[in-house]
Write a structure and sequence with these properties.
Elements lengths: L5 E4 L9 H14 L6 H5 L6 H9 L6 H18 L9 H10 L3 E4 L5 H11 L22 H10 L6 E5 L2 H9 L3 E5 L14 E3 L2 H6 L19 H4 L3
Parallel strand pairs: 1-2, 1-3, 3-4, 4-5
Length: 237
């Protein structure tokens, strides 16, 4: 087991409580274009990019004329109507500080667009991570395809065996697995432990992971021996 050298961070639902906001923005944009989609249906797809989500709920390609209009309107609605109310999960800056103190390189890996990820990282209290981030703007295919995970690995400058991804959706787990990267999953995005199967360990939120850092997969840091994750101990909700 290689020493851990890089941490790839999902943003929505992992660092900030924004999954519902994204779902509502999609529903509103679709409704403005005469397409009624239930919020619960969209909410289950948050974590994918628009290239995956829009065809699922409407049959439209994101790069088609109507798809482009809906996607752009969703972006406008999210930034103006919902982003101001998005709040960070506690202890994100402290968790990032702890990982950096262990010598870990940190690179966000998100299905969000560049403009959105910069705003969300600022809300999370870690705006400096934007320079190292890989977003849906950098790849052709969003999660659960592994493209953005590969792009984040390249930005971090390390191989898959030296990295771990922290995320909150099954799409994070699948994308990381397909890229050969292990995952730590967080429940704060709204998914069940069963749906997050495949992660090395599951924690409630960033603060919970920080509180149990020394027993987590993060403890196999750059200079230390691998540590056994307390996956079983942390799975109960």
């Amino acid at each position: 087991m290689a020493a851990l050298r890089a941490v790839l961070l999902d943003i929505d639902g992992t660092l900030v409580d924004s999954n519902d906001a994204h779902a509502r923005a999609w529903v509103d944009a679709l409704a403005e274009h005469g397409r009624t989609v239930k919020l619960g249906v969209v909410r289950r797809l948050i974590g994918m990019g628009g290239d995956k989500l829009l065809p699922r709920v409407s049959g439209l390609a994101e790069d088609g004329p109507e798809g482009r209009r809906i996607s752009e309107r969703r972006r406008e609605i999210f930034l103006s109507r919902y982003l101001p109310a998005v709040r960070p999960f506690p202890a994100v800056p402290e968790l990032v500080t702890r990982m950096r103190a262990d010598g870990l390189r940190i690179a966000p890996a998100t299905s969000a667009k560049r403009e959105e990820l910069e705003a969300l990282l600022a809300i999370a209290g870690v705006p400096e991570l934007a320079d190292a981030a890989a977003s849906s703007d950098d790849v052709d295919r969003s999660k659960p395809d592994p493209d953005v995970v590969g792009a984040a690995l390249a930005r971090a400058g390390h191989g898959a065996s030296e990295a771990i991804l922290i995320g909150d959706t099954p799409y994070d787990v699948e994308a990381a697995t397909r890229a050969g990267v292990d995952t730590i999953a967080l429940r704060c995005g709204g998914w069940s432990d069963a749906e997050l199967a495949g992660a090395l360990a599951i924690y409630d939120a960033p603060a919970d992971l920080l509180a149990h850092y020394d027993d987590s997969p993060l403890a196999r840091g750059v200079d230390g021996p691998p540590a056994r994750a307390r996956a079983g101990a942390r799975r109960p909700g």
